[in-house]
Design brief:
- This protein is an alpha/beta fold and 297 residues long.
- It folds into two domains: 160 residues, NAD(P)-binding Rossmann-like Domain (Rossmann fold, 3-Layer(aba) Sandwich); 120 residues, N-(1-d-carboxylethyl)-l-norvaline Dehydrogenase, domain 2, CATH 1.10.1040.10.
- It is 53% helix and 13% strand.
- It is built from 13 helices and nine strands.
- The strands form two sheets. It has a six-stranded parallel sheet, sandwiched between helices. Strands 7-8-9 form a three-stranded mixed sheet.
- Helix 9 packs antiparallel against helix 10 and helix 11 packs antiparallel against helix 12.
- The longest helix is centred in the middle third of the chain and has 29 residues.
- It is globular and about 65 Å long.
- The mean pLDDT is 97.
Length: 297
């Protein structure tokens, strides 16, 4: 018999993830601070609830997918948070991208209540969320991972147990540093090529077939040429994730010269009011410096 699920957070990622769980035959109780989001997924078969606590009372396994560490803390331990309903038999899976340091502390508190917990941040953006092809990196006890893996397999095509609680968030920071640096390098290279008079569409075509091929090109290359910056993953969230990586690096004395520079590029996007666009908009920083706009011909 399938466990009853809860899902808290119905943004760009959360809504399609809930739909995939519903399509897989799970009963899903949902909550969001935005009533219209609850109503939208309720039309697809989810059961709306009035608080995180209500979700935790109704569900065996509760998934959280919210923007940052303070929101996770509020969902867990706030006035209407789920803590009062957590106990033996309950599992919390936090799929948000948050502080690895805070994740370890949250896990201790949840386990003290008798419940189990996994941190399971994801990579793949809204495209992966819709297609059920996310890469999911999971931290927590191995037996809890095995218990919950059938649920995670609905949401991702690669689900990997990477270590104890907090390890999932560490691997996600590694992912975000590489993803952000790659996106910045893509923008810089396209601006250079366009400034030199080469059709950017031809540059994308060639790079996509050689050693420089990467996720940034596959997912955003054609959209960059269209000047389409509708968010698959928002710039403000990329900047937040880079800050989390720097927090981790500072605590363990890991030098991060490249990530530090890339973070400043994304900070520039934030300062220019571009935080809600897709994180590929870092190309605009290079365009402004070079005095040229990249677009397909």
């Amino acid at each position: 018999m399938k466990p009853v699920l809860g899902f808290i957070g119905l943004g760009i990622m959360g809504k399609p993830m809930v739909r995939n769980l519903l399509n897989a035959g799970y009963q899903v109780h949902v909550y969001s601070i935005i009533d219209s989001d609850i109503a939208e997924v309720a039309q697809d078969g989810a059961t709306g609830q009035g608080s995180s606590l209500d979700v935790a009372k109704a569900a065996d396994v509760i998934i959280t997918m919210v923007p940052n560490t303070p929101q996770v803390e509020e969902v867990l331990f706030g006035e209407t948070g789920m803590a009062a309903a957590l106990g033996e038999g309950k599992v919390v899976i936090d799929m948000s991208t948050i502080s690895s340091l805070a994740t370890r502390e949250f896990a201790k508190s949840i386990k003290a209540l008798g419940a189990q917990v996994l941190d399971a941040p994801v990579s793949g953006g809204d495209k992966g969320a819709k297609g059920g092809t996310l890469s999911i990196m999971v931290g927590g006890d191995a037996h809890v991972f095995e218990q919950c893996k059938p649920i995670l397999d609905v949401l991702g095509s690669r689900v990997t147990h990477v270590g104890d609680n907090g390890a999932g968030q560490v691997v996600k920071s590694c992912n975000q540093v590489l993803a952000a640096a790659t996106m910045a390098a893509l923008g810089e290279s396209l601006v250079m090529g366009a400034k030199a008079g080469v059709n950017p569409a031809k540059i994308v075509e060639v790079l996509s077939a050689g050693y420089a091929r990467c996720g940034a090109l596959d997912i955003r290359g054609s959209l960059l040429l269209e000047r389409n910056f509708d968010p698959g993953f928002m710039t403000r969230l990329q900047y937040k994730d880079l800050n989390l990586a720097m927090e981790l690096a500072t605590g363990i004395d890991a030098p991060m010269p490249v990530a530090s520079l890339v973070r400043e590029l994304y900070k520039t996007c934030i300062a220019q009011g571009l935080g809600n666009e897709d994180h590929s908009n870092v190309i605009k920083v290079f365009e402004n410096m070079a005095g040229i706009e990249v677009k397909g011909c």
